[in-house]
Write a structure and sequence with these properties.
This protein is of the alpha/beta class. The chain contains seven helices and twelve strands. Helix 6 links the parallel strand 6 and strand 7 (about 215-220).
Length: about 325
């Protein structure tokens, strides 16, 4: 009996040790450093040659995922054929790719009569790019889409996923003032999407707080200018911010939610870079901002480092240019 009891105790101790080892391995995986890349909008302005070149470089880089901002240039047709061609190009990548819609993909589209065709084209993009519960490319990366909520079934382009203790998410915020139109009675699309985005942001921050995540990273084409939001008495002045600002409500919501969150909030967009500038992260409190311009930017995420997010080394042979005069060449993603 004593021997049997000893064997039982040893077995229990072994199982306990294995359980703790498995737990430690799981936690180690959660805290592991990783890398991802963002391809800013503009690489498709002259066709898909530069986009294909950048995706080919990404294939050789050890990245957890890639975010591609926009699938077509402003001068390209809003045709099903082009949408399909770009989908096939992106889907052939040997890295998970999340496609983020840009304004040129849908807001600027016109039908044969010259009238706006924006909503119909956005819905077509949703069918082609956002109909599955995973990212494009390989291996597949599971995504949770806003369209899983019955009230917002149309908004499949908004998605979130996690790597380690960082929550990543996309927001459909086109750069052309969030598709806010100054003409009276023309903003139904903007207003409906504003409600959907408001719900989405509340959910994202709730998840980040509940799971005690290190950071929440939000991707959009448009720069909501979160670090330019006036504070104190200046915030009460109408002249402090421009009128008809399509990003105003989203900006205020992000900042309010960030104040109640202990982790980092990093906003990444395709905002223009001034001549000679390189992409850089600016911080105010726990809110950070990074504009990529029309470049490909790689970021390192290291929970054990002093800076949770750092930008990978840029290729000095391709300096950044003023986006208002030219679209800069994509920066090569360094292989390590």
């Amino acid at each position: 009996m004593a021997r049997a009891r000893l064997i039982a105790l040893l077995g229990a101790a072994l199982l306990s040790t294995c359980a703790f080892a498995a737990k430690d391995a799981h936690e180690g995986k959660e805290d592991a450093a990783h890398r991802f890349a963002v391809i800013g909008h503009g690489l498709t302005e002259t066709g898909d040659k530069r986009l294909k070149h950048t995706l080919d470089e990404i294939d050789d880089a050890p990245l957890a995922f890639v975010v591609v901002t926009g699938v077509k240039g402003t001068g390209e047709p809003c045709s099903d054929k082009l949408y399909q061609q770009r989908r096939e190009l992106v889907d052939a990548t040997r890295r998970p790719v999340v496609v983020l819609p840009a304004g040129s993909d849908w807001t600027e589209c016109r039908n044969s009569a010259g009238r706006t065709n924006a909503i119909e084209r956005l819905n077509r993009m949703r069918e082609l790019y956002y109909g599955e519960g995973s990212a494009l490319g390989k291996p597949r990366l599971a995504l949770t889409r806003l369209s899983t909520s019955p009230r917002f079934r149309s908004y499949a382009e908004n998605a979130h996923w996690s790597v380690g203790k960082v929550l990543y998410a996309t927001l459909n915020l086109p750069a052309n003032n969030n598709h806010y139109l100054t003409e009276a009675g023309r903003n139904s699309e903007y207003e409906d999407r504003l409600v959907a985005n408001r719900f989405w942001l509340n959910r994202l921050f709730t998840l980040a707080r509940r799971d005690k995540l290190d950071a929440l990273v939000l991707f959009s084409e448009g720069d909501i200018k979160a670090l330019s939001q006036p504070t104190g008495l200046r915030a009460l002045l109408r002249s402090a911010m421009p009128e008809n600002d399509g990003f105003a409500e989203t900006r205020r919501q992000v900042l309010a939610l960030a104040q109640k969150y202990r982790g980092k909030v990093l906003l990444i967009d395709s905002g223009r870079l001034v001549k000679g500038a390189r992409p850089a992260i600016a911080w105010q409190g726990n809110v950070g901002h990074l504009s990529t311009g029309a470049q490909a930017v790689e970021l390192q995420v290291d929970p054990g480092a002093k800076a949770l997010f750092t930008i990978g080394k840029a290729d000095a042979a391709h300096p950044a240019e003023d986006d208002e005069h030219a679209h800069p060449k994509a920066e090569s993603l360094k292989k390590e």
